[in-house]
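Tutorial handout. Part one gives the primary structure; part two gives the three-dimensional structure as tokens.
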Amino acid sequence: PTEKPKVTFETLADRVLPSVLEHKKKLRELIERHGGVSEVARRAGIPQPSLSRLLNGASRPRQTTLYK
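Part two.
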């Protein structure tokens, strides 16, 4: 069995959070280039509020939503 690595709060704050925020920023820029949140959500077949929560909050989208 493989042990899961221990992730401390400091690790999250110092390493993981900046990476997540950078990915969200890039995703937001890409979405804006393709017509904005409403248009991308419509074309992807996902609810606009779900995409907004992904970009603006700390929500964890379903795997099917990420796939779309």
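Part three, for discussion. The mean pLDDT is 83. Helices lie at 9-33, 36-44, 48-56, 63-67.
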